[in-house]
Automatic annotation (TrEMBL):
<comment type="similarity">
    <text>Belongs to the polysaccharide lyase 1 family.</text>
</comment>
<protein>
    <recommendedName>
        <fullName>Pectate lyase</fullName>
        <ecNumber>4.2.2.2</ecNumber>
    </recommendedName>
</protein>
<comment type="pathway">
    <text>Glycan metabolism; pectin degradation; 2-dehydro-3-deoxy-D-gluconate from pectin: step 2/5.</text>
</comment>
<dbReference type="GO" id="GO:0045490">
    <property type="term" value="P:pectin catabolic process"/>
</dbReference>
<dbReference type="Pfam" id="PF00544">
    <property type="entry name" value="Pectate_lyase_4"/>
</dbReference>
<dbReference type="InterPro" id="IPR045032">
    <property type="entry name" value="PEL"/>
</dbReference>
<dbReference type="GO" id="GO:0030570">
    <property type="term" value="F:pectate lyase activity"/>
</dbReference>
<dbReference type="InterPro" id="IPR012334">
    <property type="entry name" value="Pectin_lyas_fold"/>
</dbReference>
<dbReference type="GO" id="GO:0046872">
    <property type="term" value="F:metal ion binding"/>
</dbReference>
<keyword id="KW-0456">Lyase</keyword>
<dbReference type="InterPro" id="IPR011050">
    <property type="entry name" value="Pectin_lyase_fold/virulence"/>
</dbReference>
<keyword id="KW-0479">Metal-binding</keyword>
<feature type="domain" description="Pectate lyase">
    <location>
        <begin position="66"/>
        <end position="244"/>
    </location>
</feature>
<dbReference type="InterPro" id="IPR018082">
    <property type="entry name" value="AmbAllergen"/>
</dbReference>
<keyword id="KW-0106">Calcium</keyword>
<keyword id="KW-0732">Signal</keyword>
<dbReference type="InterPro" id="IPR002022">
    <property type="entry name" value="Pec_lyase"/>
</dbReference>
Amino acid sequence: MVAFPYAHVDKSLRALAGQAEGFGRHAIGGLHGALYHVTNLADDGCGSLREGCCRNEPLWIIFEVSGTIELSSDLRVSSHKTIDGRGQKIKLAGKGLQLKECEHVILCNLEFEGGRGHDVDAIQIKPKSRHIWIDRCSLHDYDDGLIDITRESTDITISRCHFSVHDKAILIGGSSSNISDRCIRVTIHHCFFDGTKQRHPRVRFGKVHLYNNYTRNWGIYAVCASVESQIVSQCNIYEAGEKKVVFKYLSEKAADKEESTCGWIRSEGDLFLNGAQPSLLEDGSAKCVFEAHEYYPAWTMEPGSLALKKFLQLYTGWQPIARPPDNCSIVEDTLATEI
């Protein structure tokens, strides 16, 4: 049996809070807030998703409708919000979500597709946002990136997500001039990168822990380590298509340094299929990479296998699961439109 994490979090609505593994493990979202019911697919106004995301107070946002919300502008999510798509099928299109200077945000069981425009990402996390968890989301076909994490945003976990039909999947650290991004810490696990071309992820400066992900048929490379980044790759599955190189190193010069450097990658227990070539540096630089247990004591990981590969193909991204009951005694938000 495959040991999938978070098996217990669908027993009650708010059991998600504080249950992420890795760097985003402290994210509680709207745990201490009222329920906010999204009752229509409008871009704005009473009962809309945008109205709930813009409120200042903590909220646990749930949906009473299924369908596509066509965003005419980026939707900014404020602190202490859970956007919980369990029980419905919600697709966000047109633009994406922006997490700016916020903390404690959970995004669960949503679909992102068809974002259009310059610098339009499905989920853009910058600046100085922290304690973020993105779980069981399907992301594909945006004009820029799917997830960007930059400008001192940190303590983030991305889990059980499905990335497809896209070029640039995940960017961590936006520029070699942003030396303050040395604080970035991200965990990515149990995700399925399905034919996306590059950035699974691409990292500048930050510390990134990858485990039990399945990346296949990339178009340029699987994982890229640029200036001063530290990447731990544990028990992932890399299955090559036409392109075989898994790990790419790209030198850049940090703004406060005299010479250009690349990043560092340590691979432990990774499974390389169909001629995938790790192309790891042999200069001992892997010793520069952090140890995950220095930051958190445990995580759910198993050896890469064909069983894990099949499991990740089936159980990542949006899932047709029922919305759990809310066992919290907090009174529901009477200001939200009810049905």
